Every structure is written in structure tokens, then in C-alpha cells.
Amino acid sequence: MPETIPDDRPEKRETYRQTLRRTLIERRLALSAEECSRLSRAVCEHVRRNFPQLAGMRVGFCWPVKNEPDLRPLLRSWIESANPGF
Questions:
Q1: Are the C-beta atoms of residues 59 and 75 closer than 8 Å to each other?
Q2: Which of 16, 22, 36, 71 shows the smallest number of beta carbons within 10 Å?
């Protein structure tokens, strides 16, 4: 799949976006549970290391579906850090 949008017409961009989204979902769904878990931990660690200011902020997140990264452990650790004994 090309890395750039091949045509700048709106209908071509939308088709490209839909195709790319479908392809990426298929690739995520093909991951084993172990690989998905490993990648989720890596994303959590990346966010923890590179965006420490988020720990003290109100943040929103999406519930992980279709093998999306699971950020719940990161959010849980932030809540527990801010509320000992939680």
C-alpha cells in the first residue's frame, strides 16, 4: 500500500483512507494475543516515558477494540499514583 495519498480529489482520498483503515484493522486482528499484549505494553511505556505530563492531567482514552493498544494499565497506574490506596 502506498505511503502517500495517490490523488488529492476528495473521493479518492476517502477511498484511500477507507482502504488503509481496513488494511490496518486486518493486520491488527492477525496479531496473536501475546504479540498484541507485548505491543500494548510498548505503547504504554512509550507514552509513560515521553509524555510524563499526562499523568497529572485529565485524559480521555478509547476502550481497546479490534486489537487496538490497551492503555488501561497505564491509566490505572496514573490513577493509583495520584490516589494511593485506590
A1: yes
A2: 22
pLDDT by residue for the chain (86 residues), tens only, comes to 556 666 677 778 888 999 999 999 999 999 999 999 999 999 999 999 999 999 999 989 999 999 999 999 999 999 999 888 76
In 3-state terms, what secondary structure has residue 57? Answer: coil
CB 68 within 8 A of CB 29: no
**Is the CB of residue 29 less than 8 Å from the CB of residue 65?**
no
Distance CA 76, CA 44 (A): 11
